[in-house]
Amino acid sequence: MDYRGGPPITGVILAGGSNRRMGGKMKALLSINGELFIERQLAVLSTICNEILIITNEPAMFEQQLSWSQANVRIIRDHQPGNGPLAGVQAAMAAAYYDELWVVACDMPFISSVAAEMLLKLRRSRGEEGYDAAIPQLKSRLQPLHAIYHRRCQSAIDELLAAEQYRVMGLLERLEYIKAEDSFFMEKGVPLNFAENVNTPEEFNRLERS
């Protein structure tokens, strides 16, 4: 599906973390209301993405537990296991068929395609080339793991990882990106929980009770 007649885009689910704070349990395979996080994410990503990449160090876990209804899903190994989400984005950009990537962390059960569409428009809103990225800033906090990136960011990521610098915020310091604050989404009626993530069993228990 082409995004509103525009260029095709790649969806990326980062599922390569160690899950230490979750006691080693794969966060992508947690479930809410009987549906796995990753199943929810695949359904949402598939509404606007022409392909979806799952970046993981344990591909067999997903192949065994998930039955794909989408034909355009690929599982990609992390090129640099243990080096965090920046390494996952690097692997995604190297494998993606398309120049624009909607990147989400696997522990976000409420990702929003409407928010992503709005971010896409923002990224494309400056000249022919657009911005390097469009990043939500919710409650004064940047959310780089529910964001839109152009593939040209890969060179900056390569340089950071070669220098053993693994902070995603370190990447943003090198990019020309545009921020989207709370009001930007609220004006369109988009709930601000789309970047909410689950890191610990306590957070997951609160989510189940809500």
Automatic annotation (TrEMBL):
<keyword id="KW-0808">Transferase</keyword>
<dbReference type="GO" id="GO:0005737">
    <property type="term" value="C:cytoplasm"/>
</dbReference>
<dbReference type="InterPro" id="IPR029044">
    <property type="entry name" value="Nucleotide-diphossugar_trans"/>
</dbReference>
<dbReference type="GO" id="GO:0006777">
    <property type="term" value="P:Mo-molybdopterin cofactor biosynthetic process"/>
</dbReference>
<dbReference type="GO" id="GO:0046872">
    <property type="term" value="F:metal ion binding"/>
</dbReference>
<keyword id="KW-0342">GTP-binding</keyword>
<dbReference type="Pfam" id="PF12804">
    <property type="entry name" value="NTP_transf_3"/>
</dbReference>
<feature type="binding site">
    <location>
        <begin position="14"/>
        <end position="16"/>
    </location>
    <ligand>
        <name>GTP</name>
    </ligand>
</feature>
<protein>
    <recommendedName>
        <fullName>Probable molybdenum cofactor guanylyltransferase</fullName>
        <ecNumber>2.7.7.77</ecNumber>
    </recommendedName>
</protein>
<feature type="binding site">
    <location>
        <position position="107"/>
    </location>
    <ligand>
        <name>Mg(2+)</name>
    </ligand>
</feature>
<keyword id="KW-0460">Magnesium</keyword>
<keyword id="KW-0547">Nucleotide-binding</keyword>
<feature type="domain" description="MobA-like NTP transferase">
    <location>
        <begin position="11"/>
        <end position="172"/>
    </location>
</feature>
<comment type="similarity">
    <text>Belongs to the MobA family.</text>
</comment>
<dbReference type="GO" id="GO:0061603">
    <property type="term" value="F:molybdenum cofactor guanylyltransferase activity"/>
</dbReference>
<feature type="binding site">
    <location>
        <position position="27"/>
    </location>
    <ligand>
        <name>GTP</name>
    </ligand>
</feature>
<dbReference type="InterPro" id="IPR025877">
    <property type="entry name" value="MobA-like_NTP_Trfase"/>
</dbReference>
<dbReference type="GO" id="GO:0005525">
    <property type="term" value="F:GTP binding"/>
</dbReference>
<comment type="function">
    <text>Transfers a GMP moiety from GTP to Mo-molybdopterin (Mo-MPT) cofactor (Moco or molybdenum cofactor) to form Mo-molybdopterin guanine dinucleotide (Mo-MGD) cofactor.</text>
</comment>
<feature type="binding site">
    <location>
        <position position="78"/>
    </location>
    <ligand>
        <name>GTP</name>
    </ligand>
</feature>
<dbReference type="InterPro" id="IPR013482">
    <property type="entry name" value="Molybde_CF_guanTrfase"/>
</dbReference>
<keyword id="KW-0501">Molybdenum cofactor biosynthesis</keyword>
<keyword id="KW-0479">Metal-binding</keyword>
<feature type="binding site">
    <location>
        <position position="107"/>
    </location>
    <ligand>
        <name>GTP</name>
    </ligand>
</feature>
<keyword id="KW-0963">Cytoplasm</keyword>
